[in-house]
Structures are given as C-alpha cells and as structure tokens.
C-alpha cells in the first residue's frame, strides 16, 4: 500500500501555481488586483519578452509593514478575510492568499514596499520559493514587485507558453479590461520599452473606452443606466455596425471584477433582437453592481467565473437594461425623422414624371464564362470601384479555391434520377414541394440558390485586387489583435490590405481588398484578424472561401421572395447531375425528403 506523505510547502506551492499562474498574464493579473485592493490610484506595468524575462508592477497603495512582508508570501495568508462567512460579502479582488506564494515558487520575486507611516522601506527577495534576502531599502510609498525568470525551474510549464508576442497580447488584453473596470485609476503599461497604454485616471468610462478602442468605437456607443433596486447596470453598448463575429469585444464586470458570464452575454444579445445578423455579437462594456451575497466569486481558482444566487433575475434585468438603452436610440432616430419636413415644390415649376422599373426576374440557368458570377433579385448591379490613374498602381493577384467534392452518383439518382420531379407548389413563400415516385421533397429556395452561386464562384479563379483609399484611415487594435497582425502581416498584405504601424496599438490603413468588385472595409479586417488568431494553415484560402460564402448568401433569393414555377424548375435542373452537394455553403440542408411510408406512419395507416 502506498505511503501517504505530507508535501513540502515548496512542492505544494508549485502545484497551486498550476491553477493560479497559468502564464505571464496571470502574474500581472494577481499583482494588479493586489495593487487595487491596496488603494492604489496609479499603477505602472512594465514587461520584457512577453513577461517571460521580467514583469514589474508598481503602485502607490498603502504598502506592507515590515513585520508582514514574510507573511505575504505564505500560502493562505491574506488581509482580506478572516472567516468563511466573510466570503458571502467579500468585495476585494483578491482574498485567497495563494497568489504571491504561487508566483514566488516558480520564479524569482523581488518586492520593495513602504507604508506611508514608515521612515524606510523593506526589500525581500524569493528565488523559487526560498527567501534569499530581506533588508531595509530606501523607496517611495507603495509597493513594487519584479518577477523574473518565470517557470525557469519548471521547464514542463515553460514549453507550453506561446511566443513572446502572443503572451504580451494576453497581458495587454487583461490590462485593457482593468482600464475599463477602474477608470479612476491611472495605468501605464510598457512592453519592451514601448508605451502601450497610458491613462489619466479621471474616472470617465467613456475616456477609458476611447483609450482602449479608439474613436471608431467610441463614436458608436450607447450609454446604459439601469437600477431596479436589486441590480444596477451601467456602461456602454455598441451600435450594430460595430458588432463582431466573436465575443472578444465584450467586457463584463461584476462589482468591479472582470469575469465571464455566458448568461449575461446572452441577455445582451437577446436585447438586440433583429438588430443583429445571426452569427454577429454586440460590443459592450458593462458593470453589474449587486449585493455581495447575491454573487459567488469563489467558484474558480482565478476568480474568472462567478455564480449568481438568482440567475434568471440577473438575466431579465440585464436584458431589460440593454433593451431600454437601444430603444432610446431608436426613439431619437424616429424623432429626428419627424422633424424633417419635405420640401414643398414650386407651384409654377413643372414636375418631372416619375417612373418605376420592376426588379428583374431571376435566371437560374447554366452560367457561361462570359456571364456574371451570380444573378440576384436586387435592383442594381454590385458596386465596382475603378482605379483612377492618380491613385497609382495597386497589387493584383489570383488565389485558387477548391471546388466542392461532387456527390456520389447513387445519391444523385436517389434524389431526382435523370428527370425533373413533379412540382406541386410553394408553402410559406420559402419551401417548394416536389414529388418523385413515392417520395416528397421539400426544397429550401434560398439554400438551393445559395449553393449554386457559391459553386459557380468556386469554379473560377477568384480575382482579388487592392483599392487604395483616397484618405487613409487609422485603425485601433487590441493587444491580441496587434500580435496577430505582427505575426501575419504578409497574409494580410496578400489579401489586399495596406497597413502600416503608426503607434503601439494603431495601424494606418491605406489600401483595402476588392473581391469580385466588392469593397471589403475595416469590418472585414477585424473578421480576418479573428480568423487568423484561430487558423494559420492556408489562412488566405480559408478567408477567401468565407467571403465567397457571404457573397453567395447575400445575393441568393431569400425566403419569402416570390419565385415562379419556371424559375424553381430551372434551378432544380442544376441538381440533376449530382455534382452539387445537397447542403448550402454553411452546412444547412437544401432538401428534406419524406417517403410515402413515413407519411403513412404519421397518419397511423401503418405501424
């Protein structure tokens, strides 16, 4: 039988460090939270090599008394709580008492601190859990931590870290959240000698958002102010035009603590209702204030997740607060239109006769190389952008896209064989009912047309050119987005973006891509950065395919649009040869099949 042993404190600390200290950003998080709990109004952060070489966090907080310096590095040593009951109303960011012990066990830590009532400060040095120095030191009021050689004694942990650029991005993203959470605190963040963020700490959340995201975001914010006596919701929502294809631009604070809560994100999304397309997520910076006993912050080692005592009440309150803010914007727009009076025509002036041209019919027949890439029911052609001679030369290149794999022959014969089925009609102006033998087929007109357009686009070379902007635009990125751009600059250049770094977190965009005549703007750049952060293999091809899917979806006939029997018949002809998959580019089925036997079972004719 194995012998049960009590682990040595240093080993126990290193094990705890596996939960508390995942990467350099975790160290920065713990040290900043301690600084905030110490009452700091100014916090400086300086890192080298993504924090793997060194991290320094300095604050002007209350400092630590000399007799408490050693205790601060002991496990479960804290000034925040005394009993378990204190957890039900804790408001400080840190309270477990594991952070400094865990950090000191896997790095070299130098702490210099001085309370305001002390004549001299104290310096204490730990090297991988062992104290090596403790002495008086001259220093200013407050506390300074320097963490060096993180994970040097734990190579197994070190090898799982990413590049210095990526780790610095994680740190920058966390600091940006704290800037938003504590606009009353002045932050200065420096990475490898370059200033990334510097705030004045004037208490304005709007100014904090401007510092982190820039004018493009700050100009499209909707203030949120809601209080129902149980919960207070404050902050900003973004207008639909600055939505993203992921949740990275969503920041949530609960009683000043940066956390994740899927229910709150879902509540905000519900408030947008039909204002957003499916697959888009709104921008928001929201702080929830509620009684400490209504939220449990002790459910995660890093306190990144919380649990509410009344989840449903929080959900409905956040949704109501968001809907009220968005409805206020809509009312302002409607009010503005009410004050716009149409210009009265001059009675003596003859008015031109107005004529209206109906939208063209859809032509679903086979496409030749001389025809447009797709047909659609819009009143005008896709916008094209001619390159003027004064603009100068821009790069032009071609990227091949793979044609979807054809269906098996037996699948095609099972569907329609070699003859068109009998068309019965259309229900809900979306689904066509056709029969073939003892089988009923329901065809989604949008999915069928979308698949045809996408295959036509993929069957040819995709022309991608770059259009130079008359006035270059400044683009503000987050630290993680900047690290993605720095790592994939050549890919973005190949896609037609002309980007030049002008600041720590800013780019100057001078050229944008034009795909098959469509101008792809700044919003597409954010989508590209998001996809590149998740995929590196054949990134350019994947990005182009995604855009082709969006193009096909946009120009395909929609559910509810009237389509004639002849038009649907000509579209169904394209599926006879079995070369087109029976799903739309996004994976939704084009056709649903119901056999006569299945119908008879539904009506209990057979069992």
CATH topology of the largest domain: Ribosomal Protein S8, Chain: A, domain 1
Query: How do the strands line up in the largest sheet?
Result: 5-4-3-6-2-1-7-8
Shape: elongated
* Helical amount: 25-40%
* Strand portion: 15-25%
The name of the CATH superfamily of the largest domain reads: MutL, C-terminal domain, regulatory subdomain
Count the beta strands.
24
Mean pLDDT: 75
What's the CATH architecture of the largest domain?
2-Layer Sandwich
Identify the CATH class of the largest domain. Alpha Beta
What does the main sheet amount to?
8 strands, mixed
How large is the radius of gyration? 31 Å
Distance between termini? 61 Å
Class from secondary-structure proportions: alpha+beta
Key descriptive features of the protein:
about 600 residues, 3 domains, Heat Shock Protein 90, Ribosomal Protein S8, Chain: A, domain 1, alpha+beta, single chain
Topology:
Layout: H1 9-20, H2 24-37, E1 42-48, E2 54-59, H3 99-105, E3 108-114, E4 121-127, E5 130-137, E6 142-148, H4 155-158, H5 164-181, E7 186-191, E8 194-198, H6 205-213, H7 215-218, E9 221-227, E10 231-238, E11 250-254, E12 257-259, H8 262-272, E13 284-290, E14 295-296, E15 307-308, H9 311-338, E16 396-399, H10 409-415, E17 422-427, E18 431-436, E19 439-444, H11 445-458, E20 462-476, H12 479-487, H13 489-494, E21 498-501, E22 506-515, E23 518-519, H14 522-534, H15 539-555, H16 565-573, E24 591-595, H17 596-602
Parallel strand pairs: 1-7, 11-13
Antiparallel strand pairs: 1-2, 2-6, 3-4, 3-6, 4-5, 7-8, 9-10, 10-13, 11-12, 14-15, 16-20, 17-18, 18-19, 19-24, 20-22, 21-22, 22-23
